[in-house]
Amino acid sequence: MDFVKSALEAGSGLLRLRPTWVPRIFTTPGGRLRLRRQDLYAFGAHRGGICERWIASTTKAQSGPATSMNEGLSAIEHEGGSILLSNAFQDRGADLIGTEDYTAQGGWNVLCKLFDNVGSIPHHVHHNAEKAARVGQQPKPESYFFPAQFNAIENSFPFTWFGLEPGTTKAQIRDCLARWNEGDNGILRFTKAYRIEADTGWQVDPGILHGPGSLVTYEPQRNSDVLSMFQSLVGERLIPWDLVVKDVPPELSHDLDYIVDLLDWDANVDPDFARRNRRDPTSAGDATATAELGFSERWISHGSSDFSAKELTVLPGRSALVKDAAAFGALVVQGHGILGSLPVEVASSIGFGAMTADEVFVIHAAATEGVKITNNSLVEPLVILKHFGPGHPEAALLVRSGAGQS
Q1: Alpha-carbon distance values, 345 to 81, 148, 316, 337, 381 (Å)
Q2: What pLDDT band is residue 138 in, cutting at 50, 70 and 90?
Q3: CA dist 258 → 124, 228, 247, 249, 268 (Å)
Q4: Of the candidates 233, 396, 377, which has an alpha carbon nearest to the alpha carbon of residue 305?
Q5: pTM to 2 decimals?
Q6: DSSP SS3 for 204
Q7: Integer angstrom CA distances of residue 392 from 232, 298, 373, 398
Q8: Percentage of the residues of the chain whose pLDDT score is greater than 90
Q9: Nearest-CA neighbor of 279 among 147, 399, 158, 117?
Q10: Radius of gyration of the chain (CA)
Q11: CB 328 within 8 Å of CB 340
Protein backbone atom coordinates (compact mmCIF):
# COMPACT_ATOMS: atom_id res chain seq x y z
CA MET A 1 0.00 0.00 0.00
CA ASP A 2 1.42 3.43 -0.91
CA PHE A 3 2.09 6.03 1.77
CA VAL A 4 -0.67 8.50 0.86
CA LYS A 5 -3.33 5.80 0.57
CA SER A 6 -2.31 4.40 3.95
CA ALA A 7 -2.43 7.86 5.54
CA LEU A 8 -5.85 8.56 4.01
CA GLU A 9 -7.26 5.29 5.29
CA ALA A 10 -5.82 5.81 8.76
CA GLY A 11 -7.25 9.36 8.95
CA SER A 12 -10.56 8.57 7.20
CA GLY A 13 -9.80 11.17 4.54
CA LEU A 14 -7.86 13.55 6.78
CA LEU A 15 -4.10 14.05 6.50
CA ARG A 16 -2.06 15.33 9.42
CA LEU A 17 0.49 18.00 8.44
CA ARG A 18 3.76 19.21 9.95
CA PRO A 19 4.12 22.98 10.64
CA THR A 20 5.85 24.91 7.85
CA TRP A 21 7.85 28.02 8.80
CA VAL A 22 9.08 30.73 6.42
CA PRO A 23 11.60 33.52 7.20
CA ARG A 24 11.64 36.97 5.60
CA ILE A 25 14.68 39.24 5.41
CA PHE A 26 12.55 42.42 5.46
CA THR A 27 10.59 41.65 8.67
CA THR A 28 11.06 41.42 12.42
CA PRO A 29 9.16 38.50 14.01
CA GLY A 30 6.29 39.46 16.28
CA GLY A 31 6.68 36.32 18.42
CA ARG A 32 2.97 35.35 18.50
CA LEU A 33 2.86 32.29 16.22
CA ARG A 34 3.63 30.02 19.21
CA LEU A 35 7.10 29.22 17.85
CA ARG A 36 9.68 29.23 20.65
CA ARG A 37 11.43 32.57 20.90
CA GLN A 38 14.87 30.95 20.65
CA ASP A 39 13.83 29.50 17.27
CA LEU A 40 12.69 32.74 15.61
CA TYR A 41 15.96 32.88 13.64
CA ALA A 42 16.32 29.13 13.12
CA PHE A 43 17.15 29.57 9.41
CA GLY A 44 20.07 31.85 10.36
CA ALA A 45 20.17 35.59 10.93
CA HIS A 46 21.19 36.14 7.30
CA ARG A 47 17.78 34.78 6.22
CA GLY A 48 15.77 37.02 8.52
CA GLY A 49 13.32 36.06 11.23
CA ILE A 50 10.45 33.60 11.03
CA CYS A 51 7.31 35.67 10.74
CA GLU A 52 5.15 33.28 8.66
CA ARG A 53 3.58 29.86 9.07
CA TRP A 54 2.27 28.40 5.81
CA ILE A 55 -0.74 26.10 6.12
CA ALA A 56 -1.44 23.07 3.89
CA SER A 57 0.99 24.51 1.36
CA THR A 58 2.11 23.11 -1.98
CA THR A 59 3.80 26.43 -2.84
CA LYS A 60 7.57 26.82 -2.62
CA ALA A 61 8.78 30.00 -0.95
CA GLN A 62 10.79 32.39 -3.11
CA SER A 63 13.08 34.32 -0.81
CA GLY A 64 16.21 34.64 -2.91
CA PRO A 65 19.12 32.30 -3.66
CA ALA A 66 19.43 31.12 -0.04
CA THR A 67 15.91 29.65 -0.02
CA SER A 68 16.13 25.99 0.98
CA MET A 69 14.90 23.18 -1.26
CA ASN A 70 11.51 22.51 0.38
CA GLU A 71 10.96 25.86 2.06
CA GLY A 72 7.26 26.67 2.24
CA LEU A 73 6.12 23.13 1.41
CA SER A 74 3.90 21.25 3.88
CA ALA A 75 4.56 17.59 4.66
CA ILE A 76 2.11 14.81 5.50
CA GLU A 77 3.10 12.88 8.64
CA HIS A 78 2.02 9.25 9.11
CA GLU A 79 3.41 6.42 11.24
CA GLY A 80 6.85 7.99 11.56
CA GLY A 81 7.19 8.77 7.85
CA SER A 82 6.48 11.83 5.74
CA ILE A 83 5.88 12.98 2.19
CA LEU A 84 5.43 16.47 0.77
CA LEU A 85 1.81 17.43 0.24
CA SER A 86 2.86 18.67 -3.22
CA ASN A 87 4.09 15.17 -4.09
CA ALA A 88 0.82 13.70 -2.88
CA PHE A 89 -0.98 16.01 -5.29
CA GLN A 90 1.18 14.80 -8.15
CA ASP A 91 0.29 11.19 -7.35
CA ARG A 92 -3.31 11.49 -6.11
CA GLY A 93 -4.53 15.00 -6.84
CA ALA A 94 -7.98 13.86 -7.97
CA ASP A 95 -8.42 11.89 -4.74
CA LEU A 96 -7.46 14.93 -2.67
CA ILE A 97 -9.60 17.71 -4.16
CA GLY A 98 -11.98 15.72 -6.37
CA THR A 99 -11.76 14.86 -10.05
CA GLU A 100 -13.69 17.91 -11.25
CA ASP A 101 -11.57 20.44 -9.35
CA TYR A 102 -8.31 18.66 -10.14
CA THR A 103 -9.13 18.56 -13.85
CA ALA A 104 -9.99 22.26 -13.81
CA GLN A 105 -7.12 23.44 -11.60
CA GLY A 106 -4.33 20.89 -12.01
CA GLY A 107 -3.42 21.14 -8.33
CA TRP A 108 -4.02 22.94 -5.04
CA ASN A 109 -3.98 26.52 -6.32
CA VAL A 110 -4.24 28.29 -3.01
CA LEU A 111 -1.75 29.36 -0.35
CA CYS A 112 -2.71 30.22 3.22
CA LYS A 113 -0.44 31.61 5.90
CA LEU A 114 -0.27 33.22 9.30
CA PHE A 115 1.82 36.40 9.23
CA ASP A 116 3.29 38.04 12.35
CA ASN A 117 5.50 41.13 12.46
CA VAL A 118 6.49 43.57 15.18
CA GLY A 119 5.52 46.61 13.12
CA SER A 120 4.56 47.41 9.55
CA ILE A 121 6.28 45.92 6.52
CA PRO A 122 7.17 47.78 3.32
CA HIS A 123 4.48 49.13 1.02
CA HIS A 124 4.44 46.61 -1.82
CA VAL A 125 2.33 45.14 -4.58
CA HIS A 126 1.48 41.71 -5.98
CA HIS A 127 1.25 41.36 -9.75
CA ASN A 128 -1.80 40.85 -11.94
CA ALA A 129 -2.00 37.94 -14.38
CA GLU A 130 -0.34 39.74 -17.27
CA LYS A 131 2.64 41.06 -15.30
CA ALA A 132 3.10 37.82 -13.34
CA ALA A 133 3.12 35.75 -16.53
CA ARG A 134 6.06 37.79 -17.86
CA VAL A 135 8.24 36.27 -15.13
CA GLY A 136 6.66 32.81 -15.14
CA GLN A 137 4.56 33.44 -12.04
CA GLN A 138 0.91 33.39 -11.03
CA PRO A 139 -1.04 36.53 -10.03
CA LYS A 140 -1.64 37.02 -6.34
CA PRO A 141 -4.92 38.25 -4.89
CA GLU A 142 -5.03 37.80 -1.12
CA SER A 143 -7.27 38.42 1.86
CA TYR A 144 -6.68 39.35 5.49
CA PHE A 145 -8.44 38.21 8.64
CA PHE A 146 -7.12 39.06 12.12
CA PRO A 147 -7.84 36.11 14.47
CA ALA A 148 -8.53 37.12 18.07
CA GLN A 149 -6.63 34.05 19.32
CA PHE A 150 -3.30 35.53 18.14
CA ASN A 151 -3.96 39.22 18.75
CA ALA A 152 -4.28 39.78 22.49
CA ILE A 153 -1.13 41.88 21.98
CA GLU A 154 -1.30 44.17 18.94
CA ASN A 155 2.45 45.04 18.85
CA SER A 156 3.70 48.41 17.69
CA PHE A 157 1.65 49.45 14.64
CA PRO A 158 -1.96 48.20 14.45
CA PHE A 159 -2.54 49.95 11.13
CA THR A 160 -2.15 48.83 7.53
CA TRP A 161 -1.16 51.11 4.68
CA PHE A 162 -3.51 50.63 1.73
CA GLY A 163 -3.55 52.17 -1.73
CA LEU A 164 -2.79 55.81 -2.53
CA GLU A 165 -4.45 59.08 -1.67
CA PRO A 166 -6.90 60.26 -4.35
CA GLY A 167 -5.14 62.82 -6.54
CA THR A 168 -1.74 61.11 -6.37
CA THR A 169 -0.05 61.02 -9.78
CA LYS A 170 2.03 58.34 -11.45
CA ALA A 171 4.85 60.89 -11.75
CA GLN A 172 4.96 61.23 -7.94
CA ILE A 173 5.27 57.46 -7.43
CA ARG A 174 7.85 57.24 -10.21
CA ASP A 175 9.86 59.90 -8.38
CA CYS A 176 9.69 57.82 -5.18
CA LEU A 177 11.25 54.88 -7.06
CA ALA A 178 13.93 57.17 -8.54
CA ARG A 179 14.90 58.24 -4.99
CA TRP A 180 15.37 54.64 -3.77
CA ASN A 181 18.98 55.07 -2.69
CA GLU A 182 18.40 58.30 -0.78
CA GLY A 183 17.13 56.48 2.32
CA ASP A 184 13.43 57.18 2.81
CA ASN A 185 11.91 57.47 -0.66
CA GLY A 186 8.83 59.21 0.74
CA ILE A 187 6.09 56.95 -0.57
CA LEU A 188 4.14 57.05 2.69
CA ARG A 189 3.35 60.70 1.96
CA PHE A 190 0.97 59.42 -0.71
CA THR A 191 -0.83 56.60 1.09
CA LYS A 192 -3.24 56.16 4.00
CA ALA A 193 -3.06 54.03 7.16
CA TYR A 194 -6.25 52.24 8.25
CA ARG A 195 -6.78 51.03 11.81
CA ILE A 196 -6.97 47.23 11.89
CA GLU A 197 -8.70 45.26 14.62
CA ALA A 198 -9.13 41.64 15.63
CA ASP A 199 -12.06 39.80 14.04
CA THR A 200 -12.19 42.00 10.93
CA GLY A 201 -10.95 41.49 7.37
CA TRP A 202 -9.89 42.97 4.03
CA GLN A 203 -9.62 41.90 0.40
CA VAL A 204 -6.39 42.86 -1.42
CA ASP A 205 -6.48 42.35 -5.17
CA PRO A 206 -3.44 42.30 -7.49
CA GLY A 207 -2.08 45.75 -8.23
CA ILE A 208 -3.07 47.22 -4.84
CA LEU A 209 -0.26 48.76 -2.79
CA HIS A 210 -0.32 47.63 0.83
CA GLY A 211 1.94 47.61 3.86
CA PRO A 212 0.52 45.25 6.50
CA GLY A 213 0.69 46.33 10.12
CA SER A 214 1.45 44.55 13.36
CA LEU A 215 -1.61 42.36 13.95
CA VAL A 216 -1.23 38.64 13.29
CA THR A 217 -2.94 38.05 9.96
CA TYR A 218 -4.56 34.91 8.54
CA GLU A 219 -4.04 35.21 4.80
CA PRO A 220 -5.73 32.95 2.24
CA GLN A 221 -4.38 33.84 -1.21
CA ARG A 222 -3.50 32.61 -4.67
CA ASN A 223 -0.56 30.18 -4.60
CA SER A 224 2.10 32.68 -5.61
CA ASP A 225 4.98 34.51 -3.94
CA VAL A 226 5.22 37.27 -6.57
CA LEU A 227 5.80 40.85 -5.35
CA SER A 228 7.56 44.19 -5.85
CA MET A 229 8.52 46.53 -3.03
CA PHE A 230 7.71 50.25 -3.30
CA GLN A 231 9.05 51.51 0.07
CA SER A 232 12.81 51.89 0.56
CA LEU A 233 12.99 52.38 4.34
CA VAL A 234 10.89 50.91 7.16
CA GLY A 235 11.96 52.17 10.56
CA GLU A 236 15.73 51.84 10.33
CA ARG A 237 15.64 48.90 7.90
CA LEU A 238 16.77 49.61 4.34
CA ILE A 239 15.01 47.60 1.64
CA PRO A 240 17.29 46.53 -1.24
CA TRP A 241 16.38 47.39 -4.84
CA ASP A 242 16.54 43.65 -5.55
CA LEU A 243 13.17 43.32 -3.80
CA VAL A 244 11.65 45.88 -6.16
CA VAL A 245 12.68 43.96 -9.26
CA LYS A 246 12.78 40.33 -8.12
CA ASP A 247 9.69 39.67 -10.27
CA VAL A 248 10.43 42.16 -13.05
CA PRO A 249 11.96 41.03 -16.38
CA PRO A 250 15.73 41.68 -16.14
CA GLU A 251 15.74 43.97 -19.16
CA LEU A 252 13.14 46.17 -17.39
CA SER A 253 14.76 46.25 -13.95
CA HIS A 254 15.45 50.00 -14.23
CA ASP A 255 12.37 50.93 -16.25
CA LEU A 256 10.50 52.95 -13.63
CA ASP A 257 7.45 53.41 -15.84
CA TYR A 258 7.08 49.63 -16.15
CA ILE A 259 7.35 49.23 -12.37
CA VAL A 260 4.72 51.93 -11.75
CA ASP A 261 2.48 50.12 -14.22
CA LEU A 262 2.46 47.10 -11.90
CA LEU A 263 -0.16 49.13 -10.00
CA ASP A 264 -3.89 49.04 -10.68
CA TRP A 265 -4.00 52.81 -10.65
CA ASP A 266 -7.74 53.42 -10.46
CA ALA A 267 -8.15 50.90 -7.64
CA ASN A 268 -5.32 52.47 -5.61
CA VAL A 269 -6.66 56.03 -5.79
CA ASP A 270 -10.33 55.06 -5.37
CA PRO A 271 -11.94 57.55 -2.93
CA ASP A 272 -14.22 54.70 -1.81
CA PHE A 273 -11.31 52.30 -1.21
CA ALA A 274 -12.21 51.23 2.32
CA ARG A 275 -15.83 50.40 1.60
CA ARG A 276 -14.94 48.42 -1.52
CA ASN A 277 -12.17 46.38 0.09
CA ARG A 278 -13.23 45.73 3.69
CA ARG A 279 -14.60 42.22 4.13
CA ASP A 280 -15.90 41.60 7.63
CA PRO A 281 -17.00 38.08 8.65
CA THR A 282 -20.47 36.98 7.60
CA SER A 283 -22.52 34.02 8.75
CA ALA A 284 -22.24 30.76 6.81
CA GLY A 285 -25.65 29.09 6.68
CA ASP A 286 -28.49 29.34 9.18
CA ALA A 287 -26.87 30.53 12.42
CA THR A 288 -29.87 29.56 14.55
CA ALA A 289 -29.99 26.03 13.14
CA THR A 290 -26.28 25.37 13.53
CA ALA A 291 -26.27 26.76 17.08
CA GLU A 292 -28.85 24.14 18.03
CA LEU A 293 -26.49 21.52 16.59
CA GLY A 294 -23.63 22.79 18.74
CA PHE A 295 -21.54 24.80 16.31
CA SER A 296 -21.33 28.00 14.28
CA GLU A 297 -19.55 28.99 11.08
CA ARG A 298 -18.59 32.32 9.53
CA TRP A 299 -17.06 33.22 6.21
CA ILE A 300 -13.87 35.12 7.03
CA SER A 301 -12.49 35.30 3.46
CA HIS A 302 -15.07 35.81 0.74
CA GLY A 303 -13.85 38.51 -1.62
CA SER A 304 -12.26 36.43 -4.41
CA SER A 305 -13.23 33.53 -6.65
CA ASP A 306 -9.66 32.20 -6.26
CA PHE A 307 -9.98 31.20 -2.57
CA SER A 308 -12.18 31.48 0.50
CA ALA A 309 -12.09 30.62 4.20
CA LYS A 310 -14.37 29.89 7.14
CA GLU A 311 -14.07 30.01 10.90
CA LEU A 312 -15.73 27.01 12.59
CA THR A 313 -16.54 27.07 16.31
CA VAL A 314 -17.75 23.94 18.15
CA LEU A 315 -19.23 24.59 21.58
CA PRO A 316 -17.72 23.02 24.73
CA GLY A 317 -18.67 19.39 25.22
CA ARG A 318 -20.50 19.17 21.89
CA SER A 319 -20.04 17.15 18.70
CA ALA A 320 -21.18 18.15 15.23
CA LEU A 321 -21.14 16.65 11.76
CA VAL A 322 -19.97 19.48 9.49
CA LYS A 323 -20.15 19.24 5.70
CA ASP A 324 -18.32 21.36 3.14
CA ALA A 325 -18.58 21.56 -0.64
CA ALA A 326 -14.81 21.32 -1.24
CA ALA A 327 -11.52 20.04 0.17
CA PHE A 328 -9.79 22.33 2.65
CA GLY A 329 -6.75 22.99 4.79
CA ALA A 330 -7.51 23.38 8.49
CA LEU A 331 -5.70 24.97 11.44
CA VAL A 332 -6.93 24.61 15.01
CA VAL A 333 -6.43 27.97 16.74
CA GLN A 334 -8.22 27.35 20.05
CA GLY A 335 -9.14 24.35 22.17
CA HIS A 336 -8.77 20.59 21.76
CA GLY A 337 -10.88 17.69 20.56
CA ILE A 338 -11.23 15.23 17.71
CA LEU A 339 -11.42 16.07 14.00
CA GLY A 340 -12.73 13.02 12.19
CA SER A 341 -10.57 10.28 13.69
CA LEU A 342 -7.62 12.57 14.51
CA PRO A 343 -7.08 14.10 17.97
CA VAL A 344 -6.32 17.81 17.60
CA GLU A 345 -5.06 20.44 20.01
CA VAL A 346 -3.45 23.86 20.06
CA ALA A 347 0.23 23.91 20.99
CA SER A 348 1.26 26.63 23.43
CA SER A 349 4.94 26.46 22.45
CA ILE A 350 6.33 24.89 19.26
CA GLY A 351 9.97 24.00 18.68
CA PHE A 352 11.39 24.52 15.20
CA GLY A 353 11.02 21.21 13.36
CA ALA A 354 8.66 19.79 15.99
CA MET A 355 5.39 18.10 15.12
CA THR A 356 2.04 19.48 16.28
CA ALA A 357 -1.56 18.23 16.28
CA ASP A 358 -3.20 21.42 15.01
CA GLU A 359 -3.01 21.20 11.18
CA VAL A 360 -4.73 18.85 8.74
CA PHE A 361 -5.84 18.58 5.11
CA VAL A 362 -9.39 17.31 4.55
CA ILE A 363 -9.94 15.68 1.17
CA HIS A 364 -12.97 16.33 -1.02
CA ALA A 365 -14.79 13.08 -0.27
CA ALA A 366 -14.47 13.51 3.50
CA ALA A 367 -15.51 17.17 3.35
CA THR A 368 -18.65 16.52 1.31
CA GLU A 369 -19.68 13.48 3.36
CA GLY A 370 -19.15 15.44 6.54
CA VAL A 371 -16.51 15.40 9.26
CA LYS A 372 -17.54 14.70 12.84
CA ILE A 373 -15.88 17.22 15.13
CA THR A 374 -15.90 16.83 18.91
CA ASN A 375 -14.91 19.48 21.42
CA ASN A 376 -13.48 17.70 24.47
CA SER A 377 -13.26 20.82 26.62
CA LEU A 378 -15.77 21.52 29.38
CA VAL A 379 -15.47 25.29 29.03
CA GLU A 380 -13.49 26.37 25.96
CA PRO A 381 -14.71 26.53 22.36
CA LEU A 382 -12.90 24.54 19.69
CA VAL A 383 -12.06 26.99 16.89
CA ILE A 384 -10.78 25.89 13.48
CA LEU A 385 -9.88 28.05 10.47
CA LYS A 386 -10.55 26.35 7.12
CA HIS A 387 -9.34 27.57 3.73
CA PHE A 388 -10.57 26.47 0.31
CA GLY A 389 -9.23 26.68 -3.22
CA PRO A 390 -10.92 28.22 -6.27
CA GLY A 391 -14.57 27.79 -7.05
CA HIS A 392 -16.24 27.03 -3.73
CA PRO A 393 -19.93 27.39 -4.79
CA GLU A 394 -21.13 29.11 -1.62
CA ALA A 395 -18.21 31.53 -1.58
CA ALA A 396 -18.84 32.42 -5.23
CA LEU A 397 -22.33 33.65 -4.30
CA LEU A 398 -20.84 35.88 -1.58
CA VAL A 399 -18.30 37.36 -4.01
CA ARG A 400 -21.07 38.31 -6.42
CA SER A 401 -23.23 39.79 -3.67
CA GLY A 402 -20.44 41.82 -2.06
CA ALA A 403 -21.32 40.44 1.39
CA GLY A 404 -19.31 41.78 4.31
CA GLN A 405 -18.42 45.10 2.70
CA SER A 406 -18.63 47.97 5.17
Answers
A1: 21, 17, 14, 6, 12
A2: very high
A3: 15, 12, 12, 10, 17
A4: 396
A5: 0.95
A6: strand
A7: 38, 14, 21, 10
A8: 91
A9: 399
A10: 21
A11: no
